[in-house]
Amino acid sequence: MIELEGLTKHYGDKVAVDDLTLTVRPGIVTGFLGPNGAGKSTTMRMMLDLDNPTAGTVRIDGKHYRQLQDPLTYIGALLEAKSVHGGRSAANHLLCLAQSNGIPRSRVTEVLDTVGLSGVAKKRSKGFSLGMSQRLGIAAALLGDPQVLLFDEPVNGLDPEGIHWIRNLMKNLAAQGRTVFVSSHLMSEMALTAEHLIVIGQGRLMADTSMREFIQQNSRSYVRVRSPEREKLLDLLHSEGIDAVAAGNGSLEVDGVPADRLGELAAAHQLVLHELSPQQASLEEAFMQLTADSVEYHARDGEPVPAQAGSPPGGRAPGAPQPAGARPGEAQPTGWGADWQKKRS
Amino acid sequence: MAALGQVIRSEWTKIRSVRSTVWTLGIAAVLTIALGMLICILTNHDFQSMPARERLSFDATNISFSGMGLGQLAMIVFGVLVVSNEYSTGMIRASLAAVPQRGTFLFCKLLVATALVFVVGLATSFVAFFAGQAMLGDLRAHLGDPGVLRAVFGGGLYMTLIALFSMAVAVMLRSPMLSLGILMPFFFLISNILGNVSATRKVGRYLPDQAGSKIMQVVTPANSDVPYGPWGGLGIMIAWTVAALLGGYVLLKRRDA
Question: Where would I find the ABC transporter domain in this sequence (chain A) (predicted)?
């Protein structure tokens, strides 16, 4: 169990983490979601007592990190940035960590076996691929057989096989009753692993709910309608008091009206439809929407998006996920992600 | 609280499992010994042509440590790498997560590295002395002569303190490039220049290497007006090291890793 209370971190006058209060419970995988730069890694470093909080506290099983006797036996962490001396062999890297916490040498062999690195145990980690490095990091996290595990962006840069392996590992660890806390900036990834979800944006807590609830609350369903007589269709919908929003390819998106009703309406007025399809907004979009809500400014309701004016000087950060699709509010494809960019500025 | 013994064992594993340890310490020993021997051979050869005043203040012990000026640079590299490798590789985050008591972590790391340097430094110093004396023929000094044992033992202490001082500077600066970029030119050039230009000599002799190397002198040079003796000089060097250690400790305690 991890408890954060009013956790805050300032870098100069920039607020990285803003008054986070939450509890990470054992027995389930808890996803920690937020766009790049939202403060996920900073929060995790504060959990490990690597960064000093400006205010607030972190408790691991009720204790402050520094009070833990042999902390690796309570909490194991895979941090995002590489934290291995490349000149040291995998086995020696784990051995020096094990010795500092009184963990027997035999455990090093065990965890190397668990992550499938036994064959390269004597090799210097400098030559390891990204996937192997990630496995070594996970071996280090498992070393003390801890009840609490933190994984910071564990699937970053992994191949599908590696991603699959990590997903199963995390689920198994949680099933054994451990606390598993995983950060990611990919909603789709979280949807597959996490049972509980904590979302932060700009360092603030945006959501702390079960995954099921999050999906129910945040996934938007709408109907896409395409017609060669677009103007007529728009007039018809307008006269019926139905809001429709123009989307790409000359199609319209309609919220809150079932597809059958739209079909019947079109038939009654003898309008040809080329497409009538109920759509479910992806979770990725729901997540985008949620984090985008943390800004005062965002493009909505079909207003043209000031595509470049709203982006920060540095432009889009590398690795920031592209929105999954056009939202109703964004008539022009050039505006995709504009509020995202605004949010990050 | 992490137990001291555990952390010391862990640091020993760290230090013995990277190649830079063997390389830097090996180069320090070989350079110090070989260069010392070479200079002893040349000195022995040229002794008769030296001015009388220099012959009077000839210091057979000190001359066999002539290689230390270069050998200490490898010691500095060792000291810097032991500490700054943690930062440049990101290992520091794993290390501090394992041992969150930063004072304990720093103490154990420096203790292990310093103990190793002391053993290597002392051995180097003795070998450099005996090898150098063997090249000096009739001019040779003996370990039993007054002050000689202190000088040879002091040679080991000097190398240890240079390495420890470098470790402390690296704790403060974190980056290996920055630390080496400051320490190397400082000990190789700046200190020598300050110590040999008459206007700055009075300041220069309080620098850690110049004060500390006094311990390796058996015969005081004829026109020397240095206001401290061999142990006083070593004391000045220790004071520098302690100050750097305190600075490093305070910064490590306060900084984000």
Answer: 2-227
Q: Which domain holds residue B42?
A: 1-254
DSSP category for residue B219: S
Collapse the DSSP code of A167 into the 3-class scheme (helix H, G, I; strand E, B; otherwise coil) and give the result: helix
Helix axes of B91-98 and B68-89: crossing angle, nearest 10 degrees = 80
- For residue B133, give the amino acid letter: Q
Per-residue pLDDT tens digits for B37-70? 999 999 999 888 888 888 888 999 999 999 999 9
Contact B256 A68 (CB under 8 A): no
Question: Under a CB-based contact definition with an 8 Å cutoff, are residues A292 and A340 in contact?
Answer: yes
- The position carrying tokens 């039993």 is B144
pTM of the model: 0.82
Neighbouring residues of A115: CB distance < 8 A, sequence distance ≥ 6: A135, A136, A138, A139, A142
The two structure tokens encoding residue B20? 């830079």
Burial of B32 (C-beta count, 10 Å sphere; 0-12/13-18/19+): buried
Helix, strand and coil percent figures for chain B, each rounded to 5? 80, 0, 20
Contact residues on chain B for A66, CB-CB shorter than 8 A: 100-101
Nearest to B98 among A51, A71, A86 (CB): A71
Alpha helices per DSSP H over A73-118: 90-100, 106-114
Q: Which domains does chain A have, with CATH numbers?
A: 2-217 (3.40.50.300), 220-283 (3.30.70)
Write the ipTM: 0.91
For tokens 């979800």, name the residue.
A197
- The values of phi and psi at residue A61, to 5°, are 45, 40
- The residue to which tokens 């983490």 are assigned: A17
User: Would you list which residues of chain B are within 8 Å, Cβ to Cβ, of chain A?
Assistant: 1-3, 6-7, 9-11, 13-14, 17-20, 85-86, 89-101, 254, 256-257
Q: What pLDDT is stored for residue A333 in this prediction?
A: 37
pLDDT of residue A81: 67
- Closest-CA residue of A relative to B257 is A50
- SS3 (DSSP) at A115: coil
Q: Give me the number of domains chain B comprises.
A: 1
Cβ–Cβ below 8 Å for A45 and B257: yes
What span, in angstroms and rounded, lies between the C-alpha atoms of A146 and A98? Answer: 12
pLDDT in tens, A85-138: 999 999 999 999 999 999 999 999 999 999 999 999 999 999 998 889 999 999
Q: Is the pLDDT of residue B208 over 60?
A: yes
Listing DSSP states for B10-53 in one string gives HHHHHHHTSHHHHHHHHHHHHHHHHHHHHHHHHHHHHGGGS-HH
